[in-house]
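Standup, Tuesday
Yesterday: got the pipeline producing structure tokens again.
Today: sanity-check two examples.
Blockers: none.

Example 1:
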Amino acid sequence: MSNSPDETLAQAAVTALTGQLALAPKPGLPDPRDLGACATGQDHNSLRWSAKALAPGLAAMAAAARRTGSATPGLRAELGAIGRSTEHSVGLAGGGHRGALWVLGLLVAAAALDPRATGRDLAATAKLLTAHPDRKAPRRPSRGSSVSAKYGAPGARGEARAGFPHVRRALDALATARSAGAPEQYARLDALLTVMSTLQDTELLYTAGPHGLRHVQAGARGVLEAGGTSTEAGRAALAAFDDDLHARAWSPRGSSGLLAGALFLDSSPLSASPSLSTPLKREDLP
């Protein structure tokens, strides 16, 4: 029996997430070649297993959006409730993916609201959704919101409210690397590094502070400036960067979730839209 449209969207999102997990080496992030845990305290196999637990929640988000039909405050509250329930299910399956759930959930809901929308339109719809407060959200501040307030970083909510500029940056980087003839794995790694090079990652700010964040951003830029991961010099710089972050136990997890969002948009028919290749201006960044 064929999947429903909502289940198809959810599966595409999970496939994007597991595709991101399969990349190696990802600086400071779980490596499929390494059986041990990385700086996040989790290994690749457990994260790949728990990623599958996102599918029912993502399908429920798509169904809620399709039933509601527009980016209303009620839909925003329902998506938040489904997301918190899904976080619990993922926790029982091994945990992880909180940032990716936020990104993918909003994009899946946006895609369900208008299956014919372009990628840039999906980002705009997600922006409309996050403009509404989540009325049923817990009142206590999260770690991410506390770090955002302390350092003035946009955080995950700021990224969504700006229309996911780093997801769009990753899409641009994918297109650029592919057009230059880079193999798919290297195109995806370059996209990840592009996100790392400018993202104000609240997880990094929490564990490493502003100095650590700048160190990671500079390291990512260094790999790209060496020629990217499709070049010998770029791969050498990537290996050194990866070793450095693992030694410091610094993990830029925010970048991985945003890459998963980009891979979701890239894997859908929406990726053929010219709007996804529109260059992103620096003023678009939060």
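Example 2:
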Amino acid sequence: MSLHVVLGHGPAGAATARLLADKGHSVRVITRSGRSPEPGIEHIALDATNSRRLTEAARGAVAIYHCAAPPYHRWASDWPPLASSVCAAAEATGAVLVMLGNLYGYGPVDGPLTEQLPLAATGPKGRVRAAVWEQARDLHEQGRIKAVEVRASDFFGPGVTDGGHLAARVMPRLLRGKPVSALGDPDAPHSWTYVPDVARALVEVAGEERAWGRAWHVPTEPALSVREMVNRLAAEAGTGPVEVRGLPSAVLGVASVFSPLLRELKEVRYQFDRPFVVDSSAYEAEFTVRATPLDEQIKATVDWWRERSATTG
């Protein structure tokens, strides 16, 4: 089978690597620190901003899945050199560059988010994410690389921990029947993209030439508010009902003094203060991946967190 290279081993990168290995492909995962080998997966430690070393590691690959991201507070400074290095490796090797994107680049909009919206973000994180895709798209249009971007809403599901809004700040408390806090309006509709579906979409578009040269939204279940999601998770866990408290702006301002993550989230607070709904119909009209049914997502997530809690205490 073919060689596939995955950059990053966060929730999406890890899920993508496992999916490719399960399909019988040779998989090479690249991270700064490396990891112990897994069945069918080779782990290599290198700095992906070093385009020469990255190109060597990706030589012979049919696809490079760019699932890596700099630390959240360093996006503006660290994304550009990382993106340039990855594009250089794609050009040198001829591998399809499959980029995992998010929805920051659109900025605040009224109505559902579609791929036809302009990338009009005004904040630094949104602007840099837009620029990363625009660089790859321009190189694709010049015929120098083959590129496609798959955009997800907020990650949800097994493996999502510190970076998830329904993860480390919610699930341990929910499993104990304790109240949880939500950023913004806990009753605003919000789209949650299931991580296994992200992996399946990344792998599917890598092999579909008609997908290349543009961005696609990962198939995502209809939007539900934080409160509705917490209620479903608590019902599955048998710990509900659980109180859901909105985090007022004033409290967020004070908390952000002590929490770098909350401080950085101010830029995208709009995503939780009002409806934030992704439209994935364009993908669904062209390809085969569909969102995992929500009941299955909820059960798998609760099971994963229960197992994690049991092993970590």
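Quick observation on example 2: The radius of gyration is 19 Å. The first strand starts at residue 3 and ends at 7.
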